[in-house]
Amino acid sequence: MLTDKPKSPSKPRKSTFRRVVEWLHLWLGLSSGVIVFVVCLTGGIWVWRHEVWHFTEKYQRVPVQEKPFLAPSVLIAKSGNYLRAKDHTEITLQGITYGRAGRSVMCSYGLPDEKSAEIYLNPYTAEIIKDKRASAASENFFIFIRAGHRFFWLPRNIGSPLVGAACIVFLVILITGLIWWYPKKWTNKTREKSFRIKWDAKWKRLNIDLHNVLGFYSFIFVILLTVTGIVFTFEWFEKAIYSGLTWKEKTAYEKPPLSDTTITQIKYQQPVDLLWSRMNTVYDRQKIGTLWISVPEKAEEPYRVSVNFGDGTILYNSRIHYYDGKTLKKLHWKSDRAVDYEKLSVGEKIFRMNFDIHTGQILGLPTKILAFIACIIGASLPVTGVIIWYNRKWGKKKKKKSGLEQSME
Known about the structure:
Elements: H1 16-46, H2 49-56, H3 72-85, E1 92-98, E2 105-111, E3 115-121, E4 128-132, H4 137-151, H5 156-181, H6 188-195, H7 203-217, H8 219-230, H9 235-246, H10 271-282, E5 288-294, E6 303-309, E7 319-323, E8 330-331, H11 346-352, H12 354-358, H13 365-393, H14 403-408
Helix pairs in contact: 1-4, 1-5, 1-13, 5-8, 7-13, 9-11
InterPro entries: PepSY-ass_TM
Pfam families: PepSY_TM (PF03929)
Transmembrane segments: 21-48, 162-182, 214-237, 369-390
């Protein structure tokens, strides 16, 4: 005689909201996982581009000397004579870039047949250190990494919206993941599972902890990096973020001002020297990270002077100035970038920081490390998530059937 086994208490049914959240998290994660993995991993690598360039390209460094930098005209004359001695009779100066103490100066030139040369010199002695005609190996590597991060190594018009759409999907995945992570009831057991990784657990349990716990701790940082990244892809998203931060409508990008072409006589014989001296007077030379002076090649083009502070990689508080090509009169530029950072509202300052926040360079090394860790965790989430899905769907061991079950078949 067969008797019915006592029924075990059934688990309470999940709400429709909970089921929808879990369904979205699962299937959106599976559909976008490969792109999210690539974008996060390449983003983590790209964080360290400046450090790699600095240590692998030795021509960027010179011994610090206790004397001032040589004027641009001296360095331009030395590099120009060097190129002319190599039978480059038609050379066009494009610009000169000064760095901090201990950095070389770069003079960039246009050559015939649309070629170019970057001549690196010692700013204290005018000694030529490097004649660079092509990208270095480290630069090519990071160009490749950036192409994966921004375009998934596809043509820009295809890859950019694809990556942007995947990042928007990733935002939904992160939010639904946080909802899924949140326990229905807080107990000592749920707290331990939610906030601690059980390193001595079996690998399946450890994988779940790595997905849930690391996902929770990195949530804010990964969200921040994702949102700041989408700004570079979709104009409508950029305008929405700008409006949300400033309560203003973002104006269209204004083209740089033009020089007065009716003036034909050059007022100053050493215009680059004058602009260089002017910037070192207006700003504290010890605080300037890079000073780049772009030389006009056409009559209507102005001189452009860009000043970056700190280590020279920070952009949010940089200064950009335009000067007439003949008179060196300062030209007014109708753009939000023309307004000094200190004069912006709080929302405008935050928006101006978008690139530096996204790349982790906003506060230097500490935030770079933080961004790197967040990117690596972000890259791990699709991997650990797929493993969890696989284990729950196919990884469970089939229970051996009892003798009674077998006899009933």
